[in-house]
């Protein structure tokens, strides 16, 4: 790859990263069109760089391209949501199990605890403000921090992409705070189990947590959703 190509590719990654962050934060909602001229001007990039960045997000299943219509933030259907939960169970519970076996992560001391506690606190502050977008973003960060316990850069990258796509599922919530609040308390239970060194128990608790979250969310996804 030439120096010019590297710069273009790097710029496209920055574009994808910025739009991805907006999706995760809830600033950009599923189903919304991404008007290319507005986004290009906002990010200060060329049309070709924007297009390359958007195509990266298409490959990550965050954006869809419709001929003659443009780029849209993807809307998840029931099969998407069910599959994402299946993948999350494998990755998140597996990461905790690896951490418990000493697979490169750490579940002792305070370093690993800081990110988890920060996620809990951010969720609580957002809940007090009745800011469900903030609660959702804090939940995403909490689960990313759980996987980080395994100490694997590849798992970190994998869960970041999975959770970004999963964030799209929240569009199906009519009363999102009611959905999220019970799980905020479960984050506290998970951290307490980990702090006590009960990593296997935490992994099983997380497995049950994800199953209950899956059932509650699928109740909200229309059967006809695509």
Explain what this protein looks like in three dimensions.
The chain is built from nine helices and two strands, in the order αααββαααααα. The longest helix has 23 residues, at 3-25. The chain has a two-stranded antiparallel sheet. The chain starts with a helix and ends in an 8-residue tail after the last helix. The protein has two domains: 3-73, Winged helix-like DNA-binding domain superfamily/Winged helix DNA-binding domain (Arc Repressor Mutant, subunit A); 78-218, GntR ligand-binding domain-like (Four Helix Bundle (Hemerythrin (Met), subunit A)), CATH 1.20.120. 69% of the residues lie in helices and 4% in strands. With 226 residues, it is mainly α. The chain has helices at residues 3-25, 36-43, 47-59, 78-100, 111-128, 132-148, 153-166, 176-195, 199-218; strands at residues 63-66, 70-73. InterPro entries: GntR_C, TF_FadR/GntR_C, Tscrpt_reg_HTH_GntR, WH-like_DNA-bd_sf, WH_DNA-bd_sf. Residues 9-76 form the HTH gntR-type domain.
């Amino acid at each position: 790859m030439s120096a010019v190509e590297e710069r273009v590719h790097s710029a496209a990654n920055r574009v994808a990263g910025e739009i991805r962050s907006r999706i995760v934060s809830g600033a950009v909602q599923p189903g919304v069109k991404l008007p290319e001229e507005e986004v290009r001007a906002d990010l200060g990039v060329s049309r070709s760089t924007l297009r390359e960045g958007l195509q990266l997000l298409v490959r990550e299943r965050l954006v869809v391209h419709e001929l003659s219509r443009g780029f849209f933030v993807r809307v998840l259907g029931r099969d998407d949501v069910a599959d994402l939960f299946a993948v999350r169970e494998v990755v998140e519970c597996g990461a905790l199990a690896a951490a418990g076996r000493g697979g490169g992560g750490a579940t002792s001391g305070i370093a690993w605890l800081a990110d988890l506690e920060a996620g809990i606190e951010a969720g609580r502050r957002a809940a007090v403000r009745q800011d469900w977008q903030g609660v959702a973003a804090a939940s995403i960060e909490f689960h990313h921090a759980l996987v980080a316990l395994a100490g694997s850069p590849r798992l970190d990258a994998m869960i970041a992409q999975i959770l970004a796509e999963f964030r799209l599922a929240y569009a199906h919530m009519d009363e999102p705070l009611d959905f999220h609040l019970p799980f905020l308390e479960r984050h506290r239970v998970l951290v307490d189990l980990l702090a006590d060194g009960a990593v296997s128990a935490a992994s099983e608790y997380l497995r049950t947590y994800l199953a209950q979250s899956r059932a509650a969310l699928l109740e909200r996804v229309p059967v006809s959703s695509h």
